[in-house]
What we know:
Layout: H1 3-19, H2 27-34, H3 38-44, E1 54-59, E2 64-68, H4 71-84, E3 91-95, E4 99-101, E5 104-105, E6 119-121, E7 125-127, E8 130-132, E9 142-146, E10 153-154, E11 157-158, E12 162-163, E13 166-174, E14 177-182, E15 190-192, E16 199-201, E17 208-210, E18 224-226, E19 229-232, E20 236-239, E21 242-246, E22 249-254, E23 269-271, E24 278-284, E25 289-297, E26 300-309, E27 314-318, E28 322-330, E29 333-337, E30 342-346, E31 353-362, E32 372-377, E33 381-394, E34 401-410, E35 421-427, E36 430-441, E37 447-451, H5 452-459, E38 462-463
Parallel strand pairs: 2-3, 18-28, 26-34, 31-36
Antiparallel strand pairs: 1-2, 1-33, 4-36, 5-20, 6-17, 7-8, 9-14, 10-11, 12-15, 13-14, 15-16, 19-20, 19-23, 21-22, 21-38, 22-27, 23-24, 24-27, 25-26, 28-31, 29-30, 32-33, 32-35, 33-34, 34-37, 35-36, 36-37
Amino acid sequence: MNKQVIILGLVLVVAFLLVNPIQSLNLPELxxxxxxxxxxxxxxxxxxxxxxxxxxVARTSDGIEIGVTSKEVKNEVKDKLQQLGIPITRVxxxxxxxxxxxxxxxxxxxxxxxxxxxTINFTQLQLDxxxxxxxxxxxxxxxxxxxxxxxxxxxxxxxxxxVGNFDVDKDYLVGNVVYINIxxxxxxxxIIKEPNTPIPVTIEPITExxxxxxxxxxxKVRPVVGGIEISSDKGAQCxxxxxxxxxxxxxxxxxxxxxxxxxxxxxxxxxxxxxxxSIGVExxxxxxxxxxxxxxxxxxxxxxxxxxRYSDAAFFKASTELTLGKIAKVGNKxxxxxxxxxxxxxxxxxxxxxxxYTIVGTLEGNAKEGTKVCKVGRTTGMxxxxxxxxxxxxxxxxxxxxxxxxxxxSAYSSxxxxxxxxxxIENGEEVVLYGILWGGSKDxxxxxxxxxxxxxxxxxxxxxxx
Length: 466
């Protein structure tokens, strides 16, 4: 052994003992710990999940990172690492937001449900993000109508027969809607298209309008596709992940925690969009594995017990028509300022379904950090962001089941988005499925998803395309 190695070994021993004064490891043991791969170090550190306030354990290039909720938990983690014989020099401990499961439990509330071609009275009516109100008062100038397959009647006069002061401005398109300008003069006079001379007519104030409303993620959608609203027997509002075939059984996948009983085959039903429209029953939801980790140093042993799964996923046998390999595509979110008559669009965050994405493949393993992925969920529509952590062990607030080797994305999510399909857009409407979302931070700025390969590991081989 040369002089440099001896000096290096002594430096490592001194440094380690300064950080871990209770430990007394010899040089070979210390060098062995320093050479352990981040993967093995992550496995060794899972016992820290016994501490309340530990959010995740992630790998880094030369060690591990542990996310905790407070400074107090930081100190507890340091003590735990010392007991486990893990040098603090290979661990980064950071304060972070806790992770929550994103099933939305239904409460007693008034819910507006509009059937296509229903007559609507526009008196302070609110539909999703569009505020439609005060339609025919003197100060009202504009309203929004659907330009695609609309059927509007004003005093039984079809809109396509109206000219003059009633102007359908087709140059002013916003997503799948269009402005219709209504001037006060229209209350006094309309000109109706006739082969000969236009005939002036008088109309009564308009109080209602007939309109075909396009489906949203909250609508009843048949055949069933990924990304639409579902609910369960326990009253949880979630999002359908993706349709699939398991062996010879057609069905779909969403989060286990959205079902009647988490991580247990309960045989409960899923409804779309809500009860009593059942679309399937749970037939596969494996129980979590039980693991005991024993760490011994100088005859002193620590035994840690916890439950884990590789995915938050369950399979449901379909009882309705579905389409394999499709995810709902939504339009832009439109915000209207009625007072100033201005409009603002937020790309992709609307809830109106304007088509479907086609799944052309799946990702094997975890995503690479920096990859841009998107999700479609019943609450926040489509949101996209970059993968910021991969293969992270995560324990959400209120659950004793750790999800192993998950990916974290910097993108918006909210309660009800649990189950959302996570994918990468490859070419136009073709996407590669990455997995399903199950959790996120309380501030909504990030979400966690189970990779598709982890779902297969728990549920078995899944066929997701025709």
